[in-house]
């Protein structure tokens, strides 16, 4: 209610019992519960607890590691925000999918196109052109290794671009450090940057911007 961002239960370092207790509280107060970064053990506990309840719907995105449990009578409020999501490589897709689920939960329409990195930069132009023609309000770009793609996209469009550094790569810039540094040092002025692997933050920020534009 304060921020317009869906509340999410971050599963890392929580026991299954802790997650189930929080989920039950959320279902009672919000009519939905979103769990991010779940483990296989946590997923099994959640499905065992809620899958036999005829009043609930369960959706889970294996790539994004997000589970949504909600009352069948509940639907996320649809807004007019429109978000595009691009990844440089297939290794970036799980974080992109996390951003997608969050933006959709905040009422946005989302279109995505994956594996458009600069090693084959000719792949970028048609999907990016299609996003602009369709009128996306914000574009999220996920990239690992040296993280060049968000700056390239920001140099080609007249809307905000949110760069998400991904924890791929090796050597000096491993674990996303190289990608983060590149994005922070980009000379493309329309580029905003979130933390390494922060799909949740990118999706939430993109949805806030897109929904505000269409109010």
SSE order, one letter for each helix or strand: EHEHEEEHEHEHEHEH
Tell me the helix content.
25-40%
* Oligomer designation: single chain
Uncertain stretches of 5 or more adjacent residues: none
What integer value in Å does the Rg equal?
A: 18 Å
Write down the overall geometry.
globular
Q: State the strand order across the main sheet.
A: 6-5-7-8-9
Structural category is alpha/beta
Give the CATH level 1 class of the largest domain.
Alpha Beta
Total count of strands: 9
Largest sheet: 5 strands, parallel
Structure keywords:
5-stranded parallel sheet, 4-stranded mixed sheet, Rossmann fold, Ribosomal Protein S8, Chain: A, domain 1, alpha/beta, 215 residues
Provide a short characterization of the protein structure.
The protein is of the alpha/beta class.
How would you characterize the overall build of this protein?
The protein is an alpha/beta fold and 215 residues long. The protein contains 7 helices and 9 strands. It has helices spanning 16-30, 40-50, 93-105, 125-134, 149-154, 177-184, 199-213, and strands at 8-10, 32-36, 56-61, 66-71, 82-87, 109-113, 138-143, 161-165, 191-193. Strand 3 (56-61) and strand 4 form a beta hairpin. Helix 1 (16-30) crosses helix 2 and helix 3 (93-105) packs across helix 7 (199-213). The longest helix is centred in the first third of the chain and has 15 residues, at 16-30. 44% of the residues are buried.
Question: What's the helix and strand layout?
Answer:
Elements: E1 8-10, H1 16-30, E2 32-36, H2 40-50, E3 56-61, E4 66-71, E5 82-87, H3 93-105, E6 109-113, H4 125-134, E7 138-143, H5 149-154, E8 161-165, H6 177-184, E9 191-193, H7 199-213
Parallel strand pairs: 1-2, 5-6, 5-7, 7-8, 8-9
Antiparallel strand pairs: 2-4, 3-4
Helix pairs in contact: 1-2, 3-7
């Amino acid at each position: 209610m304060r921020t317009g961002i869906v509340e999410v239960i971050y599963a890392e370092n929580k026991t299954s019992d802790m997650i189930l207790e929080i989920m039950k509280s959320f279902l009672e107060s919000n009519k939905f519960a979103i769990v991010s970064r779940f483990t296989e053990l946590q997923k099994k506990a959640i499905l065992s607890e809620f899958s036999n309840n005829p009043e609930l719907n369960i959706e889970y995105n294996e790539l994004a590691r997000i589970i949504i449990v909600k009352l069948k009578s509940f639907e996320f409020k649809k807004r007019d925000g429109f978000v595009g999501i691009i990844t440089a490589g297939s290794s970036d897709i799980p974080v992109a999918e996390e951003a997608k689920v969050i933006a959709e939960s905040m009422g946005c329409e989302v279109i995505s196109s994956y594996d458009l990195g600069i090693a084959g930069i000719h792949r970028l132009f048609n999907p990016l052109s299609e996003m602009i023609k369709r009128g996306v309000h914000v574009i999220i770009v996920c990239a690992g290794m040296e993280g060049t793609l968000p700056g390239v996209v920001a140099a080609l469009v007249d809307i905000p671009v949110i760069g998400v550094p991904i924890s791929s790569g090796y050597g000096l810039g491993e674990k996303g450090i190289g990608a983060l540094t590149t994005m922070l040092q980009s000379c493309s002025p329309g580029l905003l940057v979130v933390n390494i692997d922060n799909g949740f933050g990118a999706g939430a920020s993109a949805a806030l911007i897109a929904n505000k534009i269409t109010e």
